[in-house]
Amino acid sequence: MRFFYPTILLFFLTLGITKAQSSSTTNSNPFPTISTLTEWASYNSQTKFDIAVRGLLGFKFEEKEGDDASTAYTYIRKVVVNNISYTDRIVYRITNDNSASIISLVTASTDLVSFYSPQLAGYKRLNCSTPMSKEKNTTCSCYENTGFSIDVCDERVKLTMGDGNKYFISVAKK
Description:
Layout: H1 4-24, H2 34-43, H3 46-57, E1 60-66, E2 70-81, E3 84-95, E4 101-107, H4 112-116, E5 124-126, E6 138-144, E7 148-159, E8 162-173
Antiparallel strand pairs: 1-2, 2-3, 3-4, 4-8, 5-6, 6-7, 7-8
């Protein structure tokens, strides 16, 4: 009897810790809304973007690449959706004089077209003339309003677990 209560307590403690650990692997994959993406594109500040993307979505900084006109900051996060592991990537490209920025988000884990299209109802739909929209395995929809240009694409690709889709959204401040 002396060991009965501590054993029961240890059992429930172990059960609680196991539940907490299993709930840290998410089966949902949150993405920012269109209004959040446009707000981020308006920052024209990598520092502000860095704080937002790390805090809100759990992305981690991966690399920085620059050229004469702009610098790109790439962030990644590993997610598990329906017991399949994915890597989401978001790139923040900003001009070297901080006058303009573009946010690009790429994933295979979530259908971004279905997620973002309803949010773009208030935007004007355009014919896409981007290089990506001209690829035969890619379908793109392009939108704009007075402040932003947005491209949402669905690309049919070969993934490590078989054929699938890779989704892409780009938000550029005009």
